[in-house]
Design brief:
mainly alpha, 1% strand, 18 helices, two-stranded antiparallel ribbon
């Protein structure tokens, strides 16, 4: 009897730890995901009721999309510890479609893009052989390092044009968050060390609250319950130009997801097959279709959470299942979900700098396995990373190109990926032929 109780106690303790780790994943991705509906809703002048629905159901659908990707079936699911959210590169194209044609055409384009991703998943997965370590290392490096400036902007207060940007109070809270995370990593042991990011966010938020940085107004204004509803904003309509635009956006998110899949493969030690990738892409396609039907967004794998895994050292899917169910719950209970939105921006910025830096360094670790005495590898990585960073800093360099080309070339991750694949083919395959 005593033994049984002890086993149950251990199981409960393990489940509790997984729940807390899942909550850490949730906080890491929450602000990045809530940002998308807020930006699009504001641009399209949504009412408070419409905005409440958009944010709540977006969070709910993140949970659905994450479950689709976590669970391996014969058709869908990469089966890695991933969290899905709306890709930020979809914001501008969706605003353009919604503003010019109307929001129903926006959702028609999302559905079309989801079908497109589902259909090309098999072909795209076969490109795996074009992603050796020199390509994946460059891609993962750029995923991390191009996101660091986003974290730095948040650390300064969020908007670089705001009067309070970089104020001493913002900097104090942001750097304090980094310091707390580092202290728990340096002196923490076991489970405490694995939730360093969560502790940093929570402790820094309480300190920021004492300084008057936290407003509970979003919580008081939010509804208690909101159920998902098909065609909330209207039945989707279809326009060829809008559909092609979102298909191009979906190609960029597939490339980014590929980088995240390989990063997680490296962390967990699980080798990915073409079939794994195919199931992963299909899950994202179905998630996008559901997003269009329930009038939310297309969903893809979030790179933010790679940093969380790297920091926590936990490589199983169990915590992410908890994160997915928490997303479902928060999506149904807007008042509870609104609690996560009151975390001060500098706090999130501090945490993001640590997480994105970890992702970038993981890419460097993969590049460490590459033979850089071979000049072909050196040129492939250096030119690709250089182009990716350049485009990230100055995406408007392509402002005179057609919109469709801007969508692709304005994304530093895509530019790095395409450049690395092409240069690797050009140099390494020619070099291999010359030495045979």
């Amino acid at each position: 009897m005593t033994v049984t109780t002890h086993v149950h106690h251990l199981n409960f303790a393990d489940q509790w730890k997984n729940f807390v780790l899942g909550f850490q994943h949730l906080l890491a991705m929450y602000s990045g995901d809530v940002l998308v509906p807020l930006l699009i809703g504001q641009y399209l002048h949504f009412s408070t009721l419409q905005m409440t629905y958009l944010v709540s159901i977006d969070i709910f659908m993140c949970g659905v999309a994450t479950l689709l990707q976590l669970r391996r079936t014969p058709i869908t699911g990469i089966g890695l510890p991933v969290v899905l959210g709306c890709a930020v590169q979809a914001v501008t194209p969706l605003e353009s479609i919604g503003g010019k044609l109307g929001i129903t055409y926006m959702y028609g384009a999302i559905i079309a893009a989801g079908i497109f991703v589902f259909l090309i998943a098999g072909f795209f997965a076969k490109l795996k052989r074009f992603f050796p370590p020199v390509v994946t290392g460059s891609l993962i490096t750029i995923i991390g390092f191009t996101l660091v400036p986003v974290g730095f902007q948040d650390l300064g207060g969020g908007s670089a044009s705001a009067h309070a940007f970089g104020s001493p109070a913002n900097l104090l809270i942001g750097f304090l968050t980094i310091a707390i995370i580092l202290v728990f990593n340096a002196f923490g042991r076991g489970f405490i060390k694995s939730i360093a990011i969560l502790l940093g966010i929570l402790i820094a938020s309480f300190i920021a609250g004492a300084m008057g940085f936290v407003s509970l107004k979003p919580v008081s204004e939010a509804a208690w319950f909101h159920a998902p509803q098909l065609f909330f904003f209207g039945v989707p309509k279809f326009n060829v130009s809008a559909m092609v635009t979102m298909m191009l956006v979906s190609l960029t998110t597939m490339i980014e997801s590929t980088g995240v899949f390989f990063a997680l493969s490296d962390i967990t030690g699980r080798q990915l097959t073409s079939k794994d990738l195919e199931r992963g892409y299909r899950a994202e396609g179905i998630a996008a279709i559901l997003g269009g039907l329930f009038n939310t967004f297309p969903y893809s794998t979030f790179s933010e959470n790679v940093g969380v895994l790297k920091m926590s050292g936990v490589k199983t899917r169990r915590p992410v299942y908890y994160a997915a169910f928490l997303l479902l719950l928060l999506g149904l209970l807007p008042k509870v979900g609104a609690l996560a939105t009151v975390i001060p921006t500098p706090v999130l910025g501090g945490a993001m700098i640590v997480m994105f830096g970890m992702v970038g360094v993981q890419g460097v670790q993969i590049l460490h396995k590459v033979d850089f005495s071979n000049n072909a590898n050196l040129l492939t990585a250096s030119v690709s990373i250089g182009l990716g960073l350049g485009v990230t800093m100055y995406p408007h360099i392509f402002q005179y190109m057609p919109t469709e080309i801007q969508i692709i070339l304005g994304n530093g991750i895509v530019v790095t990926s395409v450049s690395a694949v092409l240069l690797n083919l050009l140099f390494n395959h020619r070099w291999a032929r010359a030495t045979n």
